[in-house]
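Notes to self, Alpha/beta hydrolase:
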Amino acid sequence: MRLEIAPGVRLFVDVQGPGLLPDGPLMRELPTLICMHGGPGFDHSAFKPGFGALADVAQIIYYDHRGHGRSDPRPRSEWTLDTWADDVVRLSDALGLVKPIVLGQSFGGFVAQHYLARHPGHASKVVLSSTSHHMGLARKLAVFERRGGPVARELARAFWSTPNADTWAAYWAGCRKLYNTRDPIDPDAGARVLLNTDILLHFAAGEMQGLDLRPGLAHAQCPVLVMVGEDDPVCPLEDALEIAAALPPQWMQLARFPGVGHGAWRDDPDAAYPVLRRFIQG
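result:
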């Protein structure tokens, strides 16, 4: 469905699982998990079908960020972290959600970090998965070189230093296979993604270049789970450790996945989904 979250602004939203379950003479309410996809410029499809494994412990809300995927096109002036972060609140209000669990994967983790800073009391829990707080180019290049040699390093350097259509095409063709450490469980997943390269290049060449999300993390007022694959080249382990260190210690939880790349549930679902399940239920 397309849901209006502000006058003239419609997001594509999909819901998996019930919010209420029969439990003897009562109806038991499940928590709501809002899943924010990566990119920028991608859509929510990468969460499917895998996240259905959690539908017995949470009602899952998938959506495409403003301007992305099946959501309505929006002007460049709205392609900002401020807008995307505030949309979590707008979406929750439109759906009548109170204290959702918010999960951000990769670029969705940028949005989730900024959401924590701008709306620290809104979520009941937050998951920051395979994400970074800054550009961190030197770290990216080191892992891409370790994983793919000097050619991969140069492709990554060219794109992240000068994002444009040509450097993106070369980078994605040469480096995408290095994001993960195992053959994909779902080899057709990439073909299903609706990609908006205009948004991708706009953000990568603009706001991302000077990004530093760490100061806002100190405002967190709920449990925050940081998930990281130790062999992730695009959001390296060191970035996740710095995110964890920037969070209030009483709220921070860290889950490291050895031998895993970008998106722990892609490379090691048997380890990743139980971690998420415990966090949701805990």
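- The chain has one domain: 2-134+180-281.
- The two ends are 31 Å apart (CA to CA).
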